Amino acid sequence: MPDDLSLEEHPAPARQPVVTASRVIAGICLVAPFVALLWVSSYSRLTPRFIGIPFFYWYQMAWVPAAALLTYTAYVLVRREERARKGGAGK
After folding, report:
1. What 3-state DSSP class applies to 66?
2. How many CA atoms lie within 13 A of 64 on its CB side?
3. pTM of the model
């Protein structure tokens, strides 16, 4: 077996870290709605009312667009990082 293909001559490409700040922020964006809605004792009350709707209901409904926005934010962050990892090639 020839010795001319040693590892010193062909170093492995530098690997980027898997856990980055943007991935941590994306994870927080995805976990926040779960924590907010699974912690029922924080919103299981009737007041304050909003246009006659008890707090319990409008709090949950307010999380629908908020969760969609947070999910989209996480998607954009991860997509931007993946593009940067690939060297900015493609869209």
Report:
1. helix
2. 5
3. 0.71
